[in-house]
Amino acid sequence: MFPRRRKEKRDDQKAEPLPERLPRHVAIIMDGNGRWALRRGLPRAAGHRAGVEALREVVKACLEWGIQILTVYAFSTENWKRPRSEVEALMNLLVEYLEREVRELHEQGVQIRAIGRLHELPPEARQKLQQAMQTTAGNGRLVLNLALNYGGRAELVDACAALVKDVEAGKLRAEEVREDTLERYLYTAGLPDPDLLIRAAGEMRLSNFLLWQAAYTELWVTSTLWPDFRREDLLAALEDYARRERRFGGLK
Ligand code: IPE
Ligand code: IPE
Ligand code: MG
Hints:
The protein has helices spanning 33-39, 44-65, 84-107, 123-136, 152-168, 179-183, 231-243; strands at residues 25-29, 69-76, 110-115, 142-150, 196-199, 218-221.
């Protein structure tokens, strides 16, 4: 059911022949950190920490392979339901990640962006994020788009509210609203839709991720837990993607 892991490729992996047709925008649901930790008898926070290492490797591969946009689901609007200690650990990890990584990401030409209800993040995380986005705003090699306190439904609610406000202010007429009008009000305004959506840890659901944007995104689910996800897993997803036929409702 899951795409086979390509262990047999390991020997000649050095060259890593890339498929010709690469996605421009890859989105990832980084799931399974808790299960990874549980299996090792470690606290869940250790799984999240290991997950950061996986993210680091994937960002590196995206830079190498010329992926233009990487959107990662790091914290959902529903994740606040978790114990306070876990939420705190996640927020601390975000701050730590930004403190440790931004300089190198900046040097490598990564532009950091974020989507979600960012104003609801703890002040320190918000501040570090603002800083990171400002520092890297001019970079163009890879957009690393962090979904933080992100929910697809919240995004649509926020977009509708902003749109209605503009209608009330006389800037827009209801009759003029089309799909591209609404898109301008999404957090992802200006970014193309994801071509490929990867989910780690086997769950066959979107969990409120990019509900609008994923309308025609190719889905790829692996049973590999996120902290175990490596560049060969990403490569396997890219190879599978290259074999897909995208029809967008039309004919071949
Ligand atoms: C994903 O891992 C990270 C976040 C949701 C922040 P989980 O913490 O959901 O890991 P599982 O699903 O419990 O294994
Ligand atoms: C999705 O994973 C959110 C992130 C990876 C940040 P969850 O672990 O929150 O999703 P569910 O609860 O299994 O649907
Ligand atoms: Mg999970």
